[in-house]
Write a structure and sequence with these properties.
Layout lengths: L1 E7 L2 H9 L2 H13 L3 E7 L2 E9 L6 H12 L2 E6 L3 H9 L3
Antiparallel strand pairs: 1-3, 1-4, 2-3
Helix pairs in contact: 2-3
Length: about 100
């Protein structure tokens, strides 16, 4: 299932991860693990935030994807199923 993962990082933990050089490595490892079709980074609500769009092959992968963000960045995570335009068209075709 295509998912959007929004990861809003705790400012102090994010600052520390930048200072000690682990933020880049954490993001690199996370992106390698989930292989997103798109990844965007911004400030949202005053926090460093990543929006990652990827195919979640198995719900049992959620802990291994989430825990590095929780443990290292004190992140607030939001998991949202999403569709692309083709998915919407397919879904609309199922409405009778």
């Amino acid at each position: 299932m295509r998912m959007m993962l929004k990861a809003s990082m705790d400012t102090e933990k994010g600052n520390e991860a930048i200072r000690n050089g682990t933020l880049g490595k954490l993001m690199e490892e996370s992106l390698e693990q989930i292989k997103p079709e798109a990844a965007y980074f911004t400030a949202d609500g005053g926090k460093r935030t990543a929006f990652l769009f990827f195919d979640l092959k198995d719900p049992s992968d959620i802990p291994s994807i989430s825990e590095p963000f929780f443990l290292n960045l004190g992140a607030d995570l939001t998991w949202t199923p999403v569709m692309n335009a083709e998915d919407v068209q397919t879904g609309l075709g199922k409405i009778r």
